[in-house]
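S.,

Sequence below, as promised.
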Amino acid sequence: MRKLVEATFVSLDGVIESPERWALPLWGKADKDAALRQLNDFDAFLLGRSTYEKFAAAWSQINGDPYFDRINSLPKFVPSTTLKTATWNATPIRGDVAAEVARLKQRPGKGIIKYGTGVLDQTLIDHHLIDEFKFSIFPIVVGSGRRLFEGVDSSKLKVRLTDAQTSPTGIVVVSYAVD
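The prediction came back faster than expected:
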């Protein structure tokens, strides 16, 4: 079975909203290179609708950068009841999201990566579909914005630390397996 890994940028005070404003200035070449190496373990993306729309608008036009070329080449799956058309190598998931994601995990291939934490997480957590969380904790206090797991009942979520690394820019990347 394919593994579903959720990777999220988070500030020291738990903010995940608008990382392009606070995280990217701290995200150096070594961080980007590590993210590109990580993508070798995956052959598909799962993105919530709003993350998909934001990323497609910003990233689909970038060419000639190995990290973005890899992201742009991967098939993307987007659960949504409101997405009218899908571009950027994406397929909408309609109907029973949990059943469709479970089917995706049963297909042959490498892992599936999901960037960002949001509304979709409630369904994924409720149905035990996430296998690992990978949080990149940035050395910055943002102050306000949507927080990690905000609006998501994660009380039944059991995790176990499997890895922790610090980048040259001070970002701590922790991985938690979901039990």
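The first strand starts at residue 4 and ends at 11.

Coffee later?
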